[in-house]
């Protein structure tokens, strides 16, 4: 394997890691929403805000990850 092909493989692996990262966090986010309950409380509002802001931040920072 040459250095160029090794770098390409590394970039592909990093790209897949970035692409799959949101799917890996779905079970934990679902559990957190379930545990926060159905009432309107500061904890449930905070979790909901975090769940909405994190994907937006990840999308904005996608070019800086590589």
Task: Detail the topology: elements first, then pairings.
Elements (H helix, E strand, L loop, with lengths): L2 H34 L5 H19 L6
Account of the protein in words:
The protein is mainly α and 66 residues long. The protein has two helices and no strands. The protein has helices spanning 3-36, 42-60. The longest helix is centred in the N-terminal third of the chain and has 34 residues, at 3-36.
Keywords, please?
66 residues; mainly alpha; elongated
Order of helices and strands: HH
**Inertia-based shape:** elongated
Structural class of the helices, strands and pairings?
mainly alpha
> What's the number of extended β-strand segments?
0
- Biggest pleated sheet: none
What proportion of the residues is helical, as a percent range?
A: over 70%
How much of the sequence lies in strands comes to under 5%
End-to-end span in angstroms? 22 Å
* Count of helical stretches: 2
Question: Which ranges are low-confidence, i.e. pLDDT below 50, for 5 or more consecutive residues?
Answer: none
Mean pLDDT: 83
- Radius of gyration over all CA atoms, rounded: 17 Å
Structure described in brief:
The protein is an all-alpha fold and 66 residues long.
